[in-house]
Specification:
Shape: globular
Order of helices and strands: HHHH
Organism: Thiolapillus brandeum
Pfam families: PP-binding (PF00550)
Protein name: Carrier domain-containing protein
Number of strands: 0
CATH topology: Non-ribosomal Peptide Synthetase Peptidyl Carrier Protein, Chain A
CATH superfamily: ACP-like
Structural class: mainly alpha
CATH class: Mainly Alpha
Number of helices: 4
Number of domains: 1
Helix content: 55-70%
Radius of gyration: 12 Å
Distance between the termini: 22 Å
């Protein structure tokens, strides 16, 4: 399972309550579309840290890194290269 599949699956199951892949585009903004609130973002952070074994610093908890499937996937790839 790819990183994208893991992130998509988590969002679909826990926030959109569906397994219909068409309900979420990889570039959809979680905040702008009301998919996640600030609590949801914290849950995403805990999921990423547990699932991918990375530590997210306070200054990395920004929409540029965490506000869509594509942004999270790119962020995880950058973190793994550190």
């Amino acid at each position: 399972m790819s990183n994208e599949d893991k992130i998509r699956g988590f969002i679909l199951e826990n926030y959109l309550f569906t397994d219909d892949q068409s309900e979420l585009n990889n570039d959809d903004s979680f905040l702008d579309q009301g998919i996640l609130d600030s609590t949801g973002i914290l849950e995403i952070i805990f999921f990423i840290e547990d699932e991918f074994g990375i530590k997210i610093k306070d200054d990395e908890m920004i929409p540029d890194n965490l506000d869509s499937v594509n942004r999270i996937v790119a962020f995880i790839e950058r973190k793994k290269q550190e």
